[in-house]
Amino acid sequence: MPPILSLRHYNQDQIIHSHQHTQLVFGLQGQLDFEIDGRGSRIHQQLLAVVPSAAQHACDSVNGSLCLVVDLPDLDWMRTRLGHHADSARRMLDQAAALRLSATQNQLVTWLSASPINDPIIAEQGAVLLLASLASGCEPIGRRSPLPLDAIHAHIDRHLAHPLEVRDLARLTGLSVQRFHHRFVNETGKTPQEFIRLRRLHEGRELIVSTQLPIGEIATRVGYSSQSAFTAALSREYGSTPRVLRREPRDKTRG
């Protein structure tokens, strides 16, 4: 039985084998092409491959890669070390899969990879911490649901008058701030901060055109600390001051 934790370099030489213990392979650097029971995936940073006991698997890395590998002892070891996490961990390990780590889980993997894992105490305790964290949940690759953008947009619109931070939006989705930011950019083409800024200005412009509310009150309603800051932001985005924007509908009516 190999050590519980080890760092392994992979290259273009393909490895094809199976073993009588469960293995977890965490990407650290580069990209590892992995195939388990005929199902292919690519493992890189923040991803891991679950290799169940006796599963035939193959891997190679054209440009080289570095991975943290966890070779797990038997189920009795898991039950003894993991306590109430053992059943969840066992279910996760029963099937071959490629999984995506949360930001916190990835930090733990990075920390362990830089630790003296040749020390048996550190290796065992590190593996226990990692398994307990994984048992709380990982995201299967290729089964990702889209972000609930309607709910996110509604939340932003309801709270335009108040400070809005990315972590408030991430909390709606159950994702870490880093993962939410990455997903939001991929799905909308804008960062969360940019989207919030544009929603503030859009709503401010609508209030200027459709109401006679004072500009200072509108600025407050859409989250600006001062009328001058709101005016400057509006002018940069639309090329017009609030006064000009308010006058435009009247000018068109007269024309």
UniProtKB/TrEMBL annotation:
PROSITE patterns linked to this entry: HTH_ARAC_FAMILY_2
UniProt KW Transcription regulation keyword: yes
Which Pfam family is an annotated match for this chain, by its short name? HTH_18
Quote one Gene Ontology molecular function term: DNA-binding transcription factor activity
> Does Disulfide bond count among this protein's keywords?
no
Q: Which superkingdom, per the lineage? A: Bacteria
Output the InterPro entries linked to this UniProt entry.
Answer: AraC_XylS_family_regulators, Homeodomain-like_sf, HTH_AraC, RmlC-like_jellyroll, RmlC_Cupin_sf
Sorted alphabetically, which SUPFAM superfamilies does this protein's record hold? Homeodomain-like, RmlC-like cupins
Q: Which Gene3D superfamilies match?
A: Homeodomain-like, Jelly Rolls
Segments forming domain HTH araC/xylS-type: 150-248
Keywords for the protein's UniProt record, in alphabetical order? DNA-binding, Transcription, Transcription regulation
What is the protein's known function?
A: Regulatory protein of the TOL plasmid xyl operons. XylS activates the xylXYZLTEGFJQKIH operon required for the degradation of toluene, m-xylene and p-xylene.
Q: What is this protein called?
A: AraC family transcriptional regulator
Which species is this UniProt entry from?
Stutzerimonas zhaodongensis
